[in-house]
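Data availability (excerpt). The following record was deposited with the supplementary files.
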Amino acid sequence: MGTSMLPKTTDDELSQGRRLLVLAICCASIIVVVMDISIVNVALPAIRRDLHASVSGLQWTVDAYTLVLAGFLVLGGSTADRVGRRRVFQVGLAAFGLGSLLCSLAPSIGWLIAARALQAVGGTMLNPVAMAITATTFPDPAERARAIGVFGSMSGLSLALGPILGGALVDGLGWRSIFWINVPIVAAAIVCTALFVPESRAARARRFDPVGQVLVILMLGSVVYAIIESRTLGWTSPVILSLLAVAVLGALGLLGYEARRADPLLELRLFRSVPFSSAILMALFALCGFGAFLFVTTQYLQDVRGMSALTAGLCLLPVGVLVVVLSPFTGRLVGRRGPRLPLVVAGAALALGGGASMWLGPATPLPAVLAIYLLFGVFLGTVNPPITNTAVSGMPRSMAGVAASLASASRQSGTTLGVAISGTIVGSALAGGGTAYTGAEHGVWWLVLGLGVGILVLGLLSTGRWAADTAGRAAALFEEVDRGADLGEHPAGT
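Predicted structure:
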């Protein structure tokens, strides 16, 4: 009987080789999902010319993807826990592959945005589910830690290398090719998942929370739409004010409704932990800064400096190299000495990168430009491992997955806001080019500088003794949940 015919396979039955194969399949999924956040940035000038897109259209090309990811990540993970991780993972791969194919065929910017949203629907069933599959495939704690480290490093690497691969594809085959490459990878992953990935479910799956899900989408969608469209409609227009009112009401509704649910989509009790609350904010700040950096930089290099897409991608190579070099080292450093030093380094590097970028002009010597980009590489290479560690630090086992999912959702929300805000700041100057664009960029770089300072301060605040005490008190609230899960996994007499 083939593996795909088995109703369920336990972790202990898997050989070491098969475990590594499962890890490779999960890594393939994270590579295509995360790379599609950044790979499209380098193609934006070509998409704008080919589809006659506006700046807001380009913003939505990025944000339709990250907004759906942010809004439905937690739902994707909890659904997989309930109905089966392998099953949901395969559905996610199929949806992502279909969305990619439709992106490559899009005849207009509207169709491209819709196809990007379909891609992201698939992505919500891949990121958290692949992490859960990885965790259950490696039952030994030491092996699990190494596997999750490899899985996590793929995320940062994909985000940084996306513009390089995208530049090569756009110059060689056109912008549509950045979506073609996903299709064969996804097809191979679907087949390999059926053959090699065992089915698994959570011992205690969280219940579906449709009201909380709708409120999250209303809140995030209203904020992002208001920011993107404010450039053309104005902040005082009735549409923008109504959207902001909907966002506020959505946030208040979440706070009131989720506090009364046994299994809320947004577990508010986690926020009593200072490390967790700080990790959520730092994830938001970090990817907001990096999303803004990518959005304005790829257009600065191509539209202001006249570079090809490939050359622009290669200019971001220092970022990718530093992520490759620093991410494993940062993970080990967090394991030995805790998250404080990497968070301070990451925050300082982002702040310095934002400050130094204010000196960039149309004719700034290229070595100086690349030296500034090194700061963003240091930031991205040191920020992700400590944020994940801080989010789950001190949390009981039953809440670790929820905490990690919320941190991931915060990252996607940050990327969405970074693109929305930066596009609004520089949008009117894009047609002017030259000094008009680099002058408008200053607003973005002030934002990035402030976000870096925020990460630095939160990194210091969240790693002290007082913060650890709040995490301990928050974890104690979930001890009963943990005991219930243990009873479900180990019935009496076994």
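Summary of structural features: The radius of gyration is 22 Å.
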